[in-house]
Amino acid sequence: MRILISNDDGINNSALWALVRALQPLGEVIVAAPDRNRSGVGTGLTLHDPVRFREIYSRADGVRAYGVEGTPGDAVIMGLRHLAGGPVDAVVTGINPGNNVSHDVLISGTVGAALQGYLNGAAAMAVSVGLIEEADDETVQAIVRSVAAELAKKTTPRPFLANLNFPRLVVGPIRGARKTIAAPRPVEDRVEPGGRGNDQHFWILRRAGVHADYESLPPDSDISALHEGFVSISSLSWQLASDIEEPALDRLVEAACSALA
Amino acid sequence: MRILISNDDGINNSALWALVRALQPLGEVIVAAPDRNRSGVGTGLTLHDPVRFREIYSRADGVRAYGVEGTPGDAVIMGLRHLAGGPVDAVVTGINPGNNVSHDVLISGTVGAALQGYLNGAAAMAVSVGLIEEADDETVQAIVRSVAAELAKKTTPRPFLANLNFPRLVVGPIRGARKTIAAPRPVEDRVEPGGRGNDQHFWILRRAGVHADYESLPPDSDISALHEGFVSISSLSWQLASDIEEPALDRLVEAACSALA
Amino acid sequence: MRILISNDDGINNSALWALVRALQPLGEVIVAAPDRNRSGVGTGLTLHDPVRFREIYSRADGVRAYGVEGTPGDAVIMGLRHLAGGPVDAVVTGINPGNNVSHDVLISGTVGAALQGYLNGAAAMAVSVGLIEEADDETVQAIVRSVAAELAKKTTPRPFLANLNFPRLVVGPIRGARKTIAAPRPVEDRVEPGGRGNDQHFWILRRAGVHADYESLPPDSDISALHEGFVSISSLSWQLASDIEEPALDRLVEAACSALA
Amino acid sequence: MRILISNDDGINNSALWALVRALQPLGEVIVAAPDRNRSGVGTGLTLHDPVRFREIYSRADGVRAYGVEGTPGDAVIMGLRHLAGGPVDAVVTGINPGNNVSHDVLISGTVGAALQGYLNGAAAMAVSVGLIEEADDETVQAIVRSVAAELAKKTTPRPFLANLNFPRLVVGPIRGARKTIAAPRPVEDRVEPGGRGNDQHFWILRRAGVHADYESLPPDSDISALHEGFVSISSLSWQLASDIEEPALDRLVEAACSALA
């Protein structure tokens, strides 16, 4: 089995290498990730400038790793179409320090990277934890591996795009895994002036909206699952094609639970 | 009524000003758009660098216009939270020369800009035509105006994100409008080497996949509607929440048809 | 006579258009300048990414103006080699709001733009004033025109690179013009931490050094001339080739003085 | 003795680490270099956006190394003012694969990096070879070390900026070292159209001018020295202050020759 790994925090982020360690037992792992932190660039691609890459010193034996001067989406396309040297069974991105949940996941580069895998026909999944040190947790690693193995079986007519989130481990042990939907939480961005002298500039501050109280959310939302200590597994495929993807999503949840038992 | 307009081709693109002309009869129009062509950057935001803007020479009387040094999403957030100077009734983006359809719409900056409006609680819509000169067509302008007016009424519990596409006018007159879903068309990106001498680089070429034959698509897909000469109106809101948004989507279709009659 | 104009503050800076007005009486004027503020990028060129441009709405009758997505140096090269449509007699850059003096002029994009004109074989000059509103002063405009006309005569075996600075007009009227050398003033850059939360970043603050007391400077330095109310004209050509350029520099000083009389 | 090393080809370029190896015998070496290839950006600084850095895996024992997201000049300023943790005795940049000679050296980031060291009061030197593999040559390394040791003594009233170039070793052994001036060779940039479909863009191609025949150059030029098999050592300090720097330049030449003997 061959798995392409990417992220949005850049190829030097330790949680990327935690993902490599989690998936190496499944087969060949190749890394193609941005050479810098590119979080927040969402689904963006570099279509009007050239993209460059460089093979870098790999922190894992037998794993080829490439730093791509581009977005997370660029890195996955470079990986799939140029660097992997053949078809891959799955694209897994992350591990992102900080959960990617609610409608706001689309600005996440972790999701944006997985999306390009999905659009290019690969089984794809974005993985996030609450805190960076949790990426190395043994249970987290076992669950990621179990879910990725199931995903790579490609049991649906078309591959799909899964979003895997872990609850905060400091709050308590993982209670199980649940199939979820993205919580309809609005954002309330703020624009803060900055700069000095003649250089007036502004910073965009991303803020979750005030409607984030847990009671108002649908009980099957991703935020609710995490809040209650469950692993959240949702489909970000378009239209949540319930007829073909629901059973597959069920199997991912089972895979997660089996790693917990 | 106040409407915020943006796009991804940049504030100097003539089709942006066609949209301004289409919507000016509805009330106050404010433009906040990238100062350069930023197509392809999708949902990306600039969260790690400052964002700057500049009021520019407006091509329409009474319309304030700002060029933002950032992504389409940055421009909408700057517009909503800083430049508009108060609440807006709708965010409308485009007119994009080239249709934004299928699952691939997420790399469109036109959609990425509308998305930030939607996430920030505004009624939002992305508008695209097949060819740039069609943005000035009288029927197109009347339909855009009619649909935007309906959208701005905000008749659903939560605002939603609509995607309006026009069929190629050269093929024949518009036959009507349809509610659609995003066609499940995969992409087949190519990576092409470029550069000279020591500077080896690569270009990412976006290509629609081979499964784009019309027969294989769901009959209610956006691509099918355009192919048959209909205006396509889809919801890009998450989960296509059929219970609350379906009737609203029906009303947008009616609004489009009423401008045709 | 054809003159190519550029700057580093971007094509929308009002002092650029003051320079256009100053030089239009001499002949045909073409503008190729960065489409955004690019001050501080010095001599930098874009050799590894494509460069784009766009003809923009010109604020002066009969003057073609192009906004270049690149550095000031890129803009001049695009102007000389692609946009001008033939040889030019001089490249004049500015008017920069804020003097460009001392050894530190090399980080100025105004100088960096003029440098590319010089390296490409054109007579070239960078022009700076103390405050942006002084770019419109009648005496300033007359002196710029007179000096540029002399420069464009190309009386030396090889064209050279002049640096023209005006003293602060608020202090008193211009007392004359002097041939100067770049003052040997060191800089004392500061690095200031910024950012919030996990995003730790830094700002580079450019600061003139403590040795900037006027007494310690060579009496023929550019800073000294400005301090005493004189227009400063120096050569930034390499090696200050005194044998071939000194007489030419003398003639520029005379041209400045003649516009004062 | 503490030496700050930087370059413009980025922290992963092997010739940077050749320079580290050459200078380590002299004392403590610290590396602060761009995290990507940034050749061609000349003297540019990042004054309007934040600059970030990251400590990276060092390829030399006992050498701290930082990848800076910025220009070569930014890297040196970050190194001097933030990362070194105290004063440094010299800033040495390179080794650049490809000679930096003639008036055109100012677009070199290797020189641009050294320039910021010089402006900030450090003894500074840029080092270049003809071909990247020559950076590891034993004689080259010995000469670099000998010249840097002399430079770091700071025997002039003010530190200065030296430019050290090696002749092509494939042509024959190094014949000696010479004090030179920058050859007055013009450039003849070309602008080449590129892009496909609607995206029309341009590439700037840097080309040395036609006057580069050796006979027409001053015999003491840097190009002439290299052509005749000599190491070229020139001062890039302003005005080539012959009275204070000439003797120091003489001593650098002696240091180079002594490493040859």
Topology summary:
4 copies of one chain form a homotetramer.
Chain A: E1 2-6, H1 14-23, E2 28-34, E3 52-55, E4 64-69, H2 72-83, E5 90-97, H3 109-119, E6 124-129, H4 138-151, E7 161-165, E8 176-180, E9 190-194, E10 201-205, H5 222-227, E11 230-235, H6 242-260
Parallel strand pairs in A: 1-2, 1-5, 2-4, 5-6, 6-7, 8-11
Antiparallel strand pairs in A: 3-4, 7-11, 9-10
Helix pairs in contact in A: 1-4, 2-3, 4-6
Outline the biggest β-sheet of chain A.
9 strands, mixed
- Number of beta-strand segments of chain A: 11
Q: Helix-strand pattern of chain A, N to C?
A: EHEEEHEHEHEEEEHEH
* Sheet with the most strands: spatial strand order of chain A: 3-4-2-1-5-6-7-11-8
Mind telling me the C-alpha Rg of chain A?
18 Å
Query: Could you say which overall geometry of chain A the principal axes of the C-alpha atoms support?
Result: globular
Structure classification of chain A: alpha/beta
Share in β-strands of chain A: 15-25%
What's the number of helices of chain A?
6
The largest inter-chain interface, given as chain pair and residues per side, is: A-B, 56 and 57 residues
Averaging pLDDT over every residue of chain A, what do you get? 87
Helicity of chain A, as a percent range: 25-40%
Please report the distance between the alpha carbons of the first and last residues of chain A.
25 Å
In terms of per-residue confidence, which ranges of chain A show pLDDT below 50 for 5 or more consecutive residues? 239-245
Oligomeric state: homotetramer
